Amino acid sequence: MVTATIDVPHFQMGRVTNRTFNVIGHNLATFAILSLLVAIPMLIMQFGLSRFSSGVVANGELNFSALGVVAIAVIVWLLSTFLLQAGLIHGTVTYLNGKNARVADCLSTALTALVPLFLLTILMLLGIFVGALLLIVPAIMLAVMWSVAVPACVTERTGVVGALKRSRELTRGHRWAVFGLFIAFGILNVAIALAFSVASGTPLAATSSVEAAAALTPLQAVASVLGSTINAVIGATLVASIYYELRVLKDGIGPQALAAVFD
User: Fold this and answer.
1) Of the candidates 91, 247, 87, which has an alpha carbon nearest to the alpha carbon of residue 174?
2) pLDDT, tens digit (0-9, with 9 covering 90-100), for 49-69
3) How many CA atoms lie within 13 A of 181 on its CB side?
């Protein structure tokens, strides 16, 4: 069982990483069930793409049907990922508080946060999109600055705008470390995707191309979704662990205080 240390002098990437995989390892069954929040929508969308073999651009013109499906798929994927984050945040905080994380409680927390998480998803997408139009750097800065908005919204019940402000406050002074963790996670993400791609014979282009995804066999589609789901679980738990680290640093609180919001 994990014992939290309150006296933390600075953000430690290694500690956050170790906590992330320790939490996953001790809650494997619970987190595997929660991962269905992402896996099921992804499977549905994966097989739904088979209707649009012509791709987003056909004969030099936009295929608005395919473009609409892709847009909806992105929104649904982000929302389901944030719901998974909400459930895993509950599970992570509960485990750090020395209690067993129960699937029902994690799902209850995730579903309660559904509406604010949806609105938060839209606001974050718009903000990052505008940042990307200016240049890629502002978009990255916003993504890092808002990286713990979801756990802030779930555990502190700040509201949508309040969650963005709270994330900005928590990450201030630690954004390079947070960015470094996300870079490391990105490398791990690619490695896991590559491993599943090689094992199943799935082309890597299927993760970024509508027509390639539409051509996948059922086995390849399942393998692709499985790899993506594993990455989603690791990523969501990592965000929860980063949030916990930042709360200890900024507020000096332990898991008991965090867990009290779920009582």
Assistant:
1) 247
2) 555 545 555 555 555 566 666
3) 29
Give, in order, the Cα–Cα distances in Å from 41 to each of 48, 202, 244: 10, 20, 28
Q: Rounded to an integer, what distance in angstroms lies between the CA atom of residue 257 and that of residue 11?
A: 20
Given a contact cutoff of 8 angstroms between Cβ atoms, the answer to whether 80 and 37 are in contact is: yes
Sign (positive or negative) of CA dihedral 106, 190, 70, 213: negative
- pLDDT, the chain, mean: 79
Is 0.85 topped by the overall pTM? no
Compute the distance between CA of residue 157 and CA of residue 89 in angstroms, rounded to an integer.
13
CA atoms of 251 and 257, how far apart (whole Å): 10
Cα–Cα distances in Å, from 256 out to 85, 217, 237? 20, 47, 18
Alpha carbons 89 and 84: distance in angstroms, whole number:
8
- Give the three-class secondary structure for 201: coil
Confidence of residue 208 (pLDDT cuts 50, 70, 90): very low
- The answer to whether residues 91 and 80 touch, using CB atoms and an 8 Å cutoff, is no
Beta-bridged to residue 61, according to DSSP, are: 58
